[in-house]
Amino acid sequence: MSVWSLVLVSVLFGVGAYLLMDRSLTRIALGVGALGNGVNVLIISAGSDVGEAPIIGRDGTLTDPLPQALVLTAIVIGFALLTFLMTLAWRNWTISGNDEVEDDVEDRLVARRAERTAKSGDQPHHEDVTP
Amino acid sequence: MSTLVALPILIPLITAAVMLLTRNLIVQRCLSFVALSLSLTIAVVLLVDVWGSGNIVVARLGGWPGSFAITLVADRLASVLVVVAMAVTLVVLLFALGQQAADEHSSYYHPVYMALTAGIAQAFLAGDLFNLFVAFEILLMASYVLLTLEGTSEQIRSGTTYVVLNVIESLVLVTAVGLIFAATGTVNFAELPERLAELPDGVRTGLHLLLLVAFGIKAAVFPLFFWLPDSYPTAPSSASAVFAGLLTKVGVYCLIRVQTLLFPGELSDLVMIVGIATMAIGVIGAISQQDMKRILSFHIISQIGYMVFGLGIGGAAAIAATVFYLIHHIPVKTSLFLVEGIIERDSGTSSLDRISGLARRSPMLAVLFLLPALSLAGFPPLSGFLAKFAVVRAGFDSQQYVGVGVALLVSMLTLVSMAKIWVGAFWGEAEPARPSGDVGILRHQRSMAAATMLLVAMTVAIATAAGPLYEFATQAAIQMLDVATYVSAVRGS
After folding, report:
1. Between chains, do A28 and B168 touch, taking CB under 8 Å as contact?
2. ipTM summary value
3. Residue-level pLDDT at B173
4. Quick one: pLDDT at residue B162?
5. Out of 3.40.50.970, 1.10.260.40, 1.10.287.3510, 3.90.1170.30, which CATH number does the structure's domain A3-100 have?
6. Which residues of chain B make contact with A10, given a CB cutoff of 8 A?
7. What is the pTM of this model?
């Protein structure tokens, strides 16, 4: 594995991981795309060094065909995933006007409870905290 | 025999493709039934052969020699799990047909359901890591679509969490596959054990941990479980029943393969601690919930803990207990979700605050709930008791008293939360406006009721045939621990 492909992999992983932290689904999808490509480069560079196309009858050093077959599959899968995520973001946008990932049910309950406590008294006692 | 191995994957997959050509619902339904029945028959034939001869049946797709082909492997564990998976998906299909729900009327439901079945079968039969990754993608992609088929805002909200979490899981898995390929030059299960053993300790542990995290997210073990109780309850009942019964078990199955084949006996303390924590956290989560689906979802996590705990103990007896647990848990959990589906269809809600008096209105439904619920809690003589007994005995034999204590306590708390559903939904006065007797609930939903009865009968059958089945689980465990035979069978030397 050459140093440059290693650098490329780490940059793609870094960008992807950063984008995954976002609340916006579009950014998450972009992050998934970056991460997926990082993994693809990783698998490609995990194979042997560059050489002749691996066809029976060719001479010289042949490239390992296995990682290429793996990456082709991985690219197709990644593309499908990305498409699905974008569709999900679009659907979310048509419903709610934004594409942000919402809190789950429990989180919203806890947040509402905390709001009520904050409104009901200036100094909450122990008994007030429980609903 | 070896051509049969590919059929439980190919039949549903080809059927899915054919179905997309027609939008006729009746044709799709018939095709689904024929495809799943055929796959089930083939899986049973395969199981009988593998069980009888004790051989490992291997199929090399593409006709390439040795490790170059896409390998499918049916050993004892894989073949029995394919049979259980096909049987459960067939029964749930029957349930979905009777449900008259909007999602089943979509012309995409049946093709996607077939793809899900194919993915599950392929995950059980995969003979190399990359093939396993592809199987995961097939079943995950199908589950994304099933989860968000109606496109309501609630489904999109929880679907987003589920999709993103599982996409991350896929990325971790494919990274692990890439790194393992970089380190060993192979992804084949037959060559990996030997080559992985040659690696330096640090590299090996790193790769092992990556695989554990990837499969741990899928199996919903502590601390990677949080996506599950949020996403399963919003899925349509038939979909969430299959998810609850089978998808997390695919994760557990992969964990078993990692711990017995790829890294035998390594990091078992970590796996055991994770198992104990999963049991405890899952059941505590279940007790604090007020919604039937959420309670049942948390119980999936808690029960996964038992299997992972058994896996962590290691040794033939404990692995056998885990295998038995796996087989027993699939129909039990699925039937509980089906009962919940019937209740939700009748009452329009799954909140315990708003349902009551079901036992008075439909005693049959109460029995259908009570049997798997008590089995889940581990009541003798039901299958759950035998599974828990096997795990606990394996724990005693290897002096894991803390884990055994937690396991017993958790099964008591499981009973508490099952009692909560019972008291909330089944006891009390029935709403006066509703008709009494089975007329209102089960009679109008014959195929839903029939599907649930079939699954409950399956759990009772497991309890009745526990002796031979446990013997089979032991044989499966011994076969799994014999890595050398597996390797030579898959290599074909």
Report:
1. no
2. 0.83
3. 92
4. 87
5. 1.10.287.3510
6. none
7. 0.90
